[in-house]
Amino acid sequence: MTTITIIISLINSILSLITFKDKELYKTGCGVYLFFSSIFTFFTTIILIFKFWILIITQITYTTNRSFLYFQCISLDFLLRIGLNMNEWLITCVAIERALTVIKGTRFDQKQNRRIAKYVIIILFIFITSTSIHDPINRNLLSDGDDNNDDKRIWCIVSYSDRLQIYNTFIYMFHFFVPFIFNILSAVIIIIMTTRQRTVVHSKEPYKKLLREQIKQHIHLLISPFVLISLAIPRLIIFLVGRCVDSIGNPWLLLTGYFISFFPLIITFIIFVVPSKTYTKIFKQSLTQYRQMIRSQLHFCQ
Known about the structure:
mainly alpha; Rhopdopsin 7-helix transmembrane proteins; globular; membrane; G-protein coupled receptors family 1 profile domain-containing protein; GPCR_Rhodpsn; G protein-coupled receptor activity
């Protein structure tokens, strides 16, 4: 199951990169956000693979290289946190830009928004990193057992003061729920605004009928945030329960948490590319180009 999930996650990120690296898509703010979301998805998947197998190895062997263990202790979880949060916020930025596109209509400046998108990504990265920097600072290694015992294990633990624990919980909840709220609000705004625009063209049509039509047309915008947060809820539970459970005595709880963290990363392609005719068309074109390139290379080698 783990191997299947890892493979699906990697395939998802690669397919997303193939789609969103298109030059035409990159000219829009949404394209920029989705391209970088694909990069962070791929990056996070690789880190998750490393973390998962390191946890497995430390369970079946007695690794005592403290330098290696300390490095992975302070770095991998920190990078995972940044990667997962960046991916969630970038998806939220896509939703917000779509809402702005509908609100502004013809006044929407794609070139300006593309420039803004690049600054937003930098600001998001700095913000997420700065709100997570307390995590590696408060991590340490703890030996399980007597120093003379050859079977002792070395664990990575995080220890917060009461105030820092409150701050950590608040930040975690903020990065978890705020993107979800923005996604829902953006979807609602898109539906309401497009319905109002429709009433101008179809003035004789009942408003409720037009509203129902727009809900059906944009139902994926409403479903996607709930799917993403549903898949992320187990990670939230692990975060909340993990504080109350002895991680040394329950290492498989941590393994489960990291495994579950994969799930939101395996559906980016399904959520954004599959429902969109434009993205699907670009994906097929990119795939055709890659096939032709591979064939030409193989032909050249022969």
